[in-house]
Target: AP-1 complex subunit gamma
Amino acid sequence: MSPSVPLQEMIRAIRSARTQCEERGVIQRECAAIRAQFRQADNGGRSHNLAKLLYVHMLGYPAHFGQMECVRMIASPRYSEKRVGYLGAMMLLDEKQDASLLITNSIKNDLAHSNQYVQSLALCTLACMGSAEMCRDLAPEIDRLLRASNSYIKKKAALCAVHIVRKVHELGELFAPAARSLLSEKNHGVLHGAVVLIIELCERNPETLERFRKTVPDLVQIMKGLVLSGYSPEHDVSGISDPFLQVRILRLLRILGRNNEGASDAMNDLLAQVATNTDSTKTVGNAVLYETVLTVLDIKSESGLRVLAVNILGRFLLNNDRNIRYIAMTSLQKIVGTDHNAVQRHRGTIVDCLKDQDASVKRRSLELSLALVSASNIRSMMKELLLFLSSCPPELRSHAASGIFNAAERYAPSQRWHIDTMLHVLITAGGDVRDETVPNLIQLITNASELHCYTVHKLYRALLADISQQSLVQVACWCIGEYGDLLLRGDCQETEPLQVTEDDALDALETVLQSHMSSPATRGFALTATMKLSTRITDNVDRIRSIVSIYGSCIDVELQQRAVEYNALFKKYDHMRAAVLERMPVIEKNSPGHTNGEFTGEAIRDIPTARIKQGELPLLPPQPASQVCDLLDLLGGSEETLQLSPAPGLSINAASTAGGDLLDLLGGLEPAPLAPAPAVPVYEKGGVTLTLSCEKQSDTGLTVTLTASNSTDSDISSFTLQAAVPKSVQLHMKAPSGDYLPARGTAKVIQMVVLNNPNKVNLKMRVRISYTRQASAFQDTVQIDSFPGLDAAGH
Model:
């Protein structure tokens, strides 16, 4: 191929290459020819060669040797060469390369050129790849062009100023007066650039934001002109006059009206006009309406206007476009706490979206449906949610079950309904529920003394039907062990009569013990239930003794320990067996920090659980190594390693002390601790307050309650606490009460930390606080050196 072939011929040759090797050969020959012609002093085809090199760069091949040619062509007086040179600079140069500094003077000269198109080339290049140094040098030139009489240049200069403000924040004050004057322009391109520039200025400087609030009447007039103007072929898009400018103005009004009643009042009428006059049958109109809704919901708007905005989102839910339905539910999710009644009007449509085929729409609909559950609609909403649970995708089942449990606990009309609902979830999705579900349901059943007979019969039927759902089997075994006498009596009035013999009950428990589907924890429940039946039946005690003795040599240590203890009860302490295995008393609620999964905030959220072994990092977004070391470096350079533990979910089988193993017949249900000591603040920063209270459980045991609150005007999500203590101290973090801190302290997150200090070392604890506020992640660490209310000698 000849070195002087036109660009089109080179493209044709490259496309006709049959293999990648042949393509590389064509490009290498052409690049060699281009490089040779670049070395010639008098080269009339420089722009032609650089254009071919840019095409090679677009294909992903090296083209860096053309950078200096770009610099030379930018300095050329000919427009045709400047155009290709500036294009090459935007593609081949960036602010990190020294060659970019060489074009600063050329750009400055071209900004003062008499030809508007040459000025435009310089403005586009600076806006594309201008470094901070270039921006500082050329900012006065851009400010001068913002005041020029040419609308074409002012439009380009405004967008260039946006880039400069993003690169060098302090230069925003330079452009503020010119940006204000641009709002009087009639040209839509200039107005669009001015609005974008003002948005950038207001977002970066609160003082500038306050100054630009005076422009709200001007923006309202511009917006009214767009809404009420007739057909304009130059700006019309599907019947909407310049929707791009309308969206930008609405976004700016949202920023100016946020937390300001005066500015909000000035734009209320306009927003109502836009909401009622914009055509919603086209995507363009929906874009304007959506931006209007966001503005109404973000400013201090009137209640009627907010209802109108919610109704617009309700219409979006009926749209055939799934994207529009998704953004509608996302917006409704944000306001369901403040405009609950308005969102409730669209409950039927939201529930219908649970049947959507799109997984994202289905997930958003589930979250919004759970947020809409209240005491007045609990029965109808739960019916829909349980129907969804039976057919929902596996990835949503855990979230749905968790939300149903929380809603049932908060709004259950009766204890029987509450128990029936939880059993329905366990039967449908027992393998997807969280660990704390089992102790929660056991506590509920224990407190409903008049429903013991009904519950044990229903659970016995469920156990016979399916033993694959581990959570269901664990609760059923516990109830059979506790209320086996009621099951054998068979005279339950609340359900159909069922005659169960002693052998039937023991057969069911033995089936669980022998099933390959049973987990070690489930076998522990079944073995304890079998042992408890020895005091509730009369004819099969020897069979129970033989079952228990078999598991005295079980490979599972926990199960073996239980069996050995139960054998000891039969052999050495048979006179105490009836007292030890008597029915459990009513289980009281634990201390405020241990809520058994109850969420104390306003919104119902799924709280993920995790367990982390000693030495592993938590499953959180990656953190810099130095930050992890900060948390671990509790003793300031000590060689003693530490334990790092995030908040895990509740364990079914909690570790017990040596003296309590014999009586630990429920495998993990702990007695209610004493009332905690008064809380003292240990952290106050950014509106987040963390208080600490201590409760001494024994000579070496200590329970620490950490309570977090949020006093700011913004909600906090993904709130987590991590703790580190010296290695000689044993640490166990229980499930937190939530991960969501609503604004203005309306709810708190409570975290219980159990410490065991057998060596009685000087106790210290370092806590890492992580959360997200307004889409920004925050993290901080606090060290706790003193624990109020404790004896210094003990800890």
In short: Confidence is low (pLDDT under 50) at residues 591-676, 791-795. Residues 20-39 form the longest helix (20 residues). The chain has 34 helices and eleven strands. The CA atoms of residues 47 and 81 lie 6 Å apart.
